[in-house]
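ok so for the tutorial part 2 we go from a plain amino acid sequence to predicted structure tokens. step 1 is just haveing the sequence, like this:
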Amino acid sequence: AGEKRKKIHQLKLKTNELIREQEATHDDICSLKATINDIKRDVNQFEENGIVVDVDPLVINQNSVYIEQWTSNELNISTL
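step 2 — the prediction. this is what the tokens look like for a chain of 80 residues:
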């Protein structure tokens, strides 16, 4: 997403520069159109597919965790 924002920002700067200079060539316009189409395609893919995250499950060693068991008769109500 950060790369796309950077690309959009650069596209805006280039467009503003061409407008200011009024020297947009056919190649400049084709390049801008191609960049815009690339960004549109990427945005559409994100909207259709979402962002896929592939992660491995967290494996916890049973020896690393200790849960003490207690019974209700061990509970001291006076400390509550």
